[in-house]
Structures are given as C-alpha cells and as structure tokens.
Input
Amino acid sequence: MLKLDSVHAWYGKTEALFGVELEVARGETLAIIGTNGAGKTTTLRAIAGSLRTTGSISIDGQEISHTPTHRRVRDHNLAIVHEGRGLLADLTVRENIVLGATRAQRRDLDNVLDLFPVLRSRTGEAASLLSGGQQQMVALARALLRQPAYLLLDEPALGLAPSVIDEIYQHISTLCKQGMGVLLVEQSVTRAAEVSHRMALIRVGKTVRTIDPSEPGEIEFFMEEAFGLGTEQ
Output
C-alpha cells in the first residue's frame, strides 16, 4: 500500500500541503479531485520526492519520506507520468521509452509495446512527430517499462480527444486488474468515477473527503462539495 499520513509540503518557504492523508492499494485506482491550485499535482510531487515534506510517506510499510527520488523509483517500484509528458522531442519513440531503464528492463520492451500497438511501427520516429495521444502513450510506456508497483498519473487525459482518453483509461483499468496501484490526478469527476475505485477531494492543500463512486448519491454530493456544480463536471 502507498500511504500518506499527515503530509505537509513546501515550495521553498511556502507551504502547499497541510496534512494530506491518502492511501492506495495494489490493484486499486484512487483519483485525486480538486480545483486548480488545490494541491493535486503537489501531492504527486511530494510522493515522488521532489519537495520538502514532513509527515509520513510509506510504500508497502517502508517509510520513504527521506528517500531521494531515484531510490523511490528504483527500490520501491514507483513511477510517475507528469503533466506535459516529459518527452525529449528529438529522440526517437524507442529512445524515449528506454531512457533511464536498466538493461534487464529494456528486454521487456516488446511486452510494453504490446499494450500500445500504434507505437510499434513508429519506434524509430522522433517523438515530436507523434500526436498528443501517442506521446502520452510513449510516456506511459516509459513508466511501465520499469514495472512499477505504483503508478502516479498527472492528468493523463489533458488536451486529448475523447476516443484517445477512452483508450488510455482502458489501459489504466487493465493495469489495475494486473495488480498495479494507480494514483490519478483528474479534473473531470465523471471521468474519474468511471475508472476509479475511490476518489479523494483535496481543497487548499488538505484532504477533505474520500468516497466510493459506486455508492448511490456520493458522486452528486462530491461534485457539489468539490466544485459547487451539478453532474456536468
């Protein structure tokens, strides 16, 4: 289990998280919901080790709060796909996917490409030539090549066509069924409800409420509490 217990985080001297508490198990998707600036991306950065934090962050019972980012990735099977994808435009698709992977991990490239068949015929092309949806698939493939136990996704559907979003979230659901834990930042409550086992509302750097979206009435209440909106969000 990936667990945050009373986590505070800072950008320099500015505190951005105020006691966030979350947990996501293997085989589960937890969506983090909130308005812009609520602390969703900051929460992922805190887990990844990019920010100064206090409180407890643990993976499968092992405390990682003072562990550098590269060891969280290497030793604790953590992977993150940032908003913006983080690809190197001049490198090929294959080079982007295997960047930073070990020799043993690179042997699994064919299996990862099986998840994204559209990329298989384009591995020798520059990443800059791909569509936005295909670039997102490259970013996901790079994360999955490391065979993470927990995958952090920061708005993977941002700016993509609905059909591409459906395909990407189908992959996410498959990964959960295979035992991966997914922590997903998503703006759309309705979209998150379709793919998540639980949803957590963050407001002004604090965890306000966690719900099971399958429970009757929970989504409507959650959306009103999160955005003051009806079910169109």
Q: What stands out?
A: The beta strands are 2-11, 14-24, 29-33, 52-59, 62-63, 78-81, 150-154, 181-185, 198-203, 206-211. The chain has a mean pLDDT of 90.
